[in-house]
Amino acid sequence: MAISTSHSYRTPTSFFRCCVSSTTHPRIPFKIEKFQSGSSAIKPASISFVKNTELAQVEVKENKWKELQRPDSFGRFGKFGGKFVPETLIYALTELESAFRSLAGDEEFQKEVDGILRDFVGRESPLYFAERLTEHYKRPDGEGPHIYLKREDLNHTGSHNINNAVAQALLAKRLGKKRIIAETGAGQHGVATATVCARFGLQCVIYMGAQDMERQTFNVIKMKLLGAEVRPVHSGTSALKDAISDAIRDSVANVESTHYILGSVAGPHPYPMMVRDFNAVIGKETRRQAIEKWGGKPDVLVACVGGGSNAMGLFHEFFDDADVRLIGVEAAGFGLDSGKHAATLTKGEVGVLHGAMSYLLQDDDGQIVEPYSLSAGLDYPGVGPEHSFLKDIGRAEYYSSTDEEALEAFKRLSRLEGIIPALETSHALAYLEKLCPMLSNGTKVVVNCSGRGDKDLQMAIKHLEV
Ligand SMILES: Cc1ncc(COP(=O)(O)O)c(C=O)c1O
């Protein structure tokens, strides 16, 4: 793909506020209006937008979504995604994309990734029939759906995050980068990154909100033990958004030596595509395991959505199977009307954050509204652009669970199945309470058990009577 780096472009303030150091780039004093679909409020900001404004207005016609390339050659999913970044990053992102594309077809690289996923991570992860949970959702007449859990919690380091961290670390090595940075919310992506850096002998710096460091102390200790430097971030709400902003600033300043292992399907192109593809192993295994177990496909897939990587990892394989329902569950915090939640797809509006266009929690001036969730990994005001696309075309459904509902689900799975799930995962499990009564007998539901809950025990003890 020919990508020119010479176009000038206007960058929205939300990007500068969140991503660019004021020491290297003066902050832009003007105010930008919130993006409205079809408006000219945000002018083309990525090189691709500049070249083809028509594409920025892509409208997906009914039933045409299957034919769309996701992402297109400009890194967009319909109107979402793109590359809203300063020029200093364009070269690094272009280099990353071309390395990713060439390694995707490189058998040696694939073999190396698969070998590490098998012997170091412990893949494949089981597709587990949750017998007592299934019993719990049986109606008085004995009918109800069958619940299965995709056990990403059994991976080395305890979550799906390791899939992407392994592959990106190997990619960084191929690019000759010896310094790795990453952001983390719940600490799981930080631990996964610190782990692969230890495994491959790479220097590792993890940005983590100071508030998240307090609520995820075990993971901070793990990262340090693994040899990573954990840098506390005190700006904003000292949470995931702020950690991503600082990591992007670092990558702008150290573009030559450093690879940024972004942990979700967010950020500028090619990250949403790359992180999705590195997690797509979850859905591929699920398809194969479903055939083995019941000789068919799942009927419903359920996953929690923060940035959206575990959900996209499960959904991607089934995108074209229109008979498979895709359900993402966001964090409703204290409730959708409380103003204290992280339900971006449910309550957000279109804007630009961290280099991509997507749904965001923002106020009337286009300024980010700070999100809230008990669960650090879901506490993000944006969401991966492909989820915004799936929502708009109606391919996936998005709902939300409150803190209280998630804590109940956390306890329920622990007691019924002997599996302590991550608080993030518990949001997806909580939605079963609403979903299951509506499903017909024998419906096969797969919930992505994205992580284990050891990291959340301190938090859970505070809130649950155990
Ligand atoms: C176990 C677990 N599940 C889910 C998430 C949410 O992230 P994503 O939506 O990218 O899967 C996180 C984030 O760190 C996590 O640790």
UniProtKB/TrEMBL annotation:
It comes from the Eukaryota. Keywords: Amino-acid biosynthesis, Aromatic amino acid biosynthesis, Lyase, Pyridoxal phosphate, Tryptophan biosynthesis. It catalyses: (1S,2R)-1-C-(indol-3-yl)glycerol 3-phosphate + L-serine = D-glyceraldehyde 3-phosphate + L-tryptophan + H2O. The keyword Lyase applies. Its cofactor is pyridoxal 5'-phosphate. Coiled coil: none annotated. Pfam families: PALP (PF00291). One of its GO terms (cellular component) is cytoplasm. Its EC number is 4.2.1.20. GO terms for molecular function: tryptophan synthase activity. Pathway: Amino-acid biosynthesis; L-tryptophan biosynthesis; L-tryptophan from chorismate: step 5/5. InterPro entries: Trp_synth_beta, Trp_synth_beta/beta-like, TrpB-like_PALP, TrpB-like_PALP_sf. Residues 123-451 form the Tryptophan synthase beta chain-like PALP domain. This is Tryptophan synthase. It comes from Protea cynaroides. The lineage of its organism: Eukaryota, Viridiplantae, Streptophyta, Embryophyta, Tracheophyta.
